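Quick illustration, no need to memorize.
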Amino acid sequence: MIYVSLISYTPDPERTIAAAARVSTSPVGATKLMEKLTPEAVDRLLTQLLASGHLSPFEHASFTFAIEGISRVTSHQLVRHRMASYTQQSQRYVSLKKADYVTPATISARPELEAKYHDMVRDCHRLYHEMLDAGIPAEDARYVLPGAMETRLVMTMNARELIHVCSLRLCLRAQWEIVALFERVKAEVERVAPRLGAELKPKCYRLGYCDEAESCGIFPTAKEVSGGK
């Protein structure tokens, strides 16, 4: 089960973004702007920034998440987003006493294959401990562990990068586990910054069409919109 908890974030993130944006055209500083900005003005300014593509002010608000229960398969995808900070549980220094791992639903739906899957993962985990007991360093014994093994990490992203990553990873054609992860990330952001949370969505909602070769069905592809041209 994927667990995501927002453990730290920029105080009043939406107002911070709005004040940062106003500084560039204001005779007063951000502190006074923070005091004067009404919720309506903040919402209006964020809408203008998003519509114009002026996204640098969104980098002034950051969010830190504790993440547990994702597979190493998904964490490898996650860290490809480089405009972020990650600290992950080390398989070099932490021995995995329990065989906690992720089972995809497509495998669970095939009982004859699911049984083999569980046997394989558990066999790998037993061999891992056999190696540790024989004096093999954990950094070497971990080579037998499958990508299905669960991991935990801390991730920090600013609001601009969250908007970008969610535009890709909330797409229904993305891999199911990373979609589930960012659905939970979105829910955590919505708790403290609902206006920002509303912008964490697949890119097709902003484009009005799907820019992939094949659509999931929510929006037509760009080729379909243009009449096949």
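The chain has two domains: 3-68+151-203, 105-146.
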